């Protein structure tokens, strides 16, 4: 799939929901617990699959998961048990680099 | 990307944390969401296509902002200080609006036919309907917020801020739940200012409790900061100047960690004094416009301190800069034919990014084919990407054939030790087209003369930039958000020069 900035993606096997903050201009496979994430609002059916017991590292509400090489950043809007992965590789949690509060 | 997503996340992540109002008795994130859901039902049942908010800042505003978002209609905060005619004109654009209006303004609004309830009634009504049912954001193409520009240089325009614009800004600049449990932010700008909207969103997303000072009084601000142990505050430059000018009161702010300012040009003297008086406070200068969903550049705390301590003129000068672009924002300085200019060269400021709306009600999008929005501000970037804003293009004085930026002359006047405020405008002149006239506020007890101030300008700038006249005024006309009312200055100076009829 080709994620779009602003798109909400959900996991069919747990509660994980993310919003795409940065997206590469390329096709990538985004999964949670090994099962593809999908855009529930697009009307597309939820992908079939079982959660991979080896990919249950979890994701945390409000945290950012980013692959800087790919130019991909996801913000977790609902946490879950599955590990977020891109093209089969877990997406690292990005360190917070907060700006000074400006307003 | 809906504003409701931010509140949903807050309620999920720290639902029991008080995020609005006093520590005791304020609204938790979960309660704010319940009230917003109840409010959304009230708006939908009324068949409203917008929520007009014509009242001071407070919990009713935050509830209205998110209730409108769940209902899928825009929130339209309106300046309660406008005259009858202007309010009528704005309200005519929203005939099916749901009105939340302070009692004292009811007469003005009732005449427009808008059905109104007070902020208190609004909160009571939303509480009655808050039954804990899960809110669902309505599908809607409507903007999240419509803010009318202050219209200091032209007729007010309705800026359409879409959910994507505002959410992009929040996600680009704030870490979720990044604030400490004891953090508290104090907001002093009125709800019809973009900073009030962005502040309500960013503080909620950070998990920071927000307090408001409904009507700014410097002494009250100081008292509230100490009483509520405020850690973060946002002010416009005139507010900071007034706080520092408070005589015979305790000006200590021990709990304050961060003070953000913006909205108008900060006089160097004021920020230097603030840095010296409150060395423990992190100062943040933010530059942005309504059309850009608030902040697009930030000058951070370390940059303030480095500038103050530095002997390097380039670093020192940064105290007067608006800082560097925030993530997701690109800045171009262009010439009048829209060609990009190299660093150091003054020109016109253009901005691109997901948070940039650049869209006006009834006029469509004002961004160019590459997605850049023209701010109508003049300025330059330095070699390291620091932006220096040098005033509105519309304020340019044309004397003879020469374009003169008033900001440059104002800066020189403000550097004079006896000058506390200054504005420079062009007044119509038969010979020159426009003449340069300065209206200046001097310190009490000063014996400086107009000719001495003209000589002071001539020492620093070339002769054609010397004001033809300097008038001494008790104060300059500004909006409550600190913007100079230049048209009023010109009108008063012209009236002043009319020969007296006998």
Question: What would your notes on this structure say?
Answer:
The complex is a heterodimer of chains A (103) and B (502). With 103 residues, chain A is mainly beta. In chain A, 0% of the residues lie in helices and 29% in strands. Chain A has no helices and 8 strands. Chain A has strands spanning 8-10, 17-22, 30-32, 35-36, 64-67, 72-78, 84-86, 89-90. A 4-stranded antiparallel beta sheet of chain A has the order 1-2-6-5, with no helix packed on it. Chain A has a 4-stranded antiparallel beta sheet with strand order 4-3-7-8, with no helix packed on it. The mean pLDDT of chain B is 91. Chain B is globular. Chain B contains 16 helices and 26 strands. Chain B has 502 residues and is of the alpha/beta class. Helix content of chain B is 33%, strand content 24%. In chain B, strands 10-9-11-12-13-14-15 form a 7-stranded mixed beta sheet. In chain B, strands 4-3-5-6 form a 4-stranded parallel beta sheet. A 4-stranded antiparallel beta sheet of chain B has the order 16-17-20-21. Chain A binds chain B through residues 5-6, 8, 19, 21, 61-63, 75, 77-78, 96, 98-103, and chain B through 1, 5, 8-9, 12-13, 164, 167-168, 171-178, 185, 195, 198-199, 202-203, 206, 208, 232, 234, 258, 260, 262, 282, 284, 286, 294-295, 298, 300-301, 326-327, 354.
């Amino acid at each position: 799939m080709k994620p779009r900035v602003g798109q909400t993606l959900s996991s069919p096997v747990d509660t994980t929901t993310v919003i795409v903050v940065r997206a590469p201009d390329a096709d990538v496979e985004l999964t949670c617990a090994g099962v593809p994430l999908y855009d529930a609002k697009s009307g597309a059916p939820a992908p079939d699959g079982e959660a991979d017991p080896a990919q249950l590292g979890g994701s945390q509400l409000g945290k950012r998961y980013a692959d800087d090489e790919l130019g991909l950043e996801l913000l977790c809007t609902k946490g879950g048990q599955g590990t977020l992965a891109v093209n089969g590789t877990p997406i690292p949690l990005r360190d917070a680099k907060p700006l000074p509060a400006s307003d | 990307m809906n504003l409701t997503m931010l509140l949903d996340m807050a309620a999920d992540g720290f639902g029991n944390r008080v995020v609005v109002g006093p520590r005791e008795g304020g609204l938790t994130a979960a309660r704010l969401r319940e009230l917003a859901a109840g409010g959304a039902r009230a708006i939908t049942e009324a068949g409203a296509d917008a929520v007009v908010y014509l009242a001071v800042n407070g919990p009713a505003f935050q509830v209205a902002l998110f209730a409108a978002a769940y209902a899928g209609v825009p929130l339209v905060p309106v300046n309660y200080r406008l005259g009858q005619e202007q309010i009528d004109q704005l309200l005519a654009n929203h005939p099916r609006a749901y009105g939340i209006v302070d009692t004292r303004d009811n007469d003005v609004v009732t005449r427009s036919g808008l059905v109104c309830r007070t902020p208190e009634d609004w909160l009571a009504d939303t509480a009655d309907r808050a039954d804990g049912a899960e809110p669902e954001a309505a599908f809607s193409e409507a903007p999240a917020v419509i803010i009318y520009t202050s219209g200091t240089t032209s007729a007010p325009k309705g800026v359409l801020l879409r959910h994507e614009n505002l959410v992009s800004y929040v996600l680009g600049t704030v870490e979720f739940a990044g604030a400490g449990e004891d953090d508290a932010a104090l907001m002093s700008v009125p709800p019809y200012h973009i900073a009030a909207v962005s502040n309500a969103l960013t503080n909620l997303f950070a998990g920071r409790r927000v307090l408001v000072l409904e009507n700014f009084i410097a002494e009250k601000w100081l008292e509230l900061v100490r009483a509520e142990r405020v850690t973060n505050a946002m002010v416009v430059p005139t507010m900071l100047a007034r706080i520092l000018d408070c005589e015979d009161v305790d000006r200590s702010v021990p709990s304050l960690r961060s003070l953000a300012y913006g909205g108008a040009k900060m006089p160097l003297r004021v920020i230097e004094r603030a840095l010296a008086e409150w060395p423990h406070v992190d100062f943040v200068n933010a530059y942005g416009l309504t059309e850009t969903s608030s902040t697009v550049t930030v000058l951070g705390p370390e940059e303030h301190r480095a500038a103050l301590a530095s002997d390097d003129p380039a670093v020192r000068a940064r105290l007067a800069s608006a800082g560097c672009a925030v993530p997701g924002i690109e800045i171009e300085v262009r010439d009048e034919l829209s060609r990009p200019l190299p660093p150091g060269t003054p020109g016109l400021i253009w901005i691109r990014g997901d948070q940039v709306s650049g869209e006006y009600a009834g006029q469509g999008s004002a961004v160019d084919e590459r997605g850049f929005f023209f701010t109508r501000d003049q300025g330059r970037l330095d070699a390291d990407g620091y932006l220096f804003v040098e005033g509105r293009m519309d304020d340019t004085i044309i004397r003879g054939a020469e374009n003169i930026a008033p900001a440059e002359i104002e800066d020189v006047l403000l550097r004079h030790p006896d000058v506390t405020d200054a504005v420079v405008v062009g007044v119509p002149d038969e010979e020159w087209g426009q003449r340069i006239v300065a209206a200046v506020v001097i310190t009490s007890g000063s014996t400086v003369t107009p000719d001495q101030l003209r000589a002071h300008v001539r020492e620093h700038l070339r002769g054609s930039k010397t004001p033809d006249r300097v008038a001494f005024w008790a104060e300059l006309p500004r909006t409550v958000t600190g913007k100079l009312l230049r048209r009023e200055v010109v009108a008063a100076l012209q009236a002043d020069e009319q020969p007296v009829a006998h």
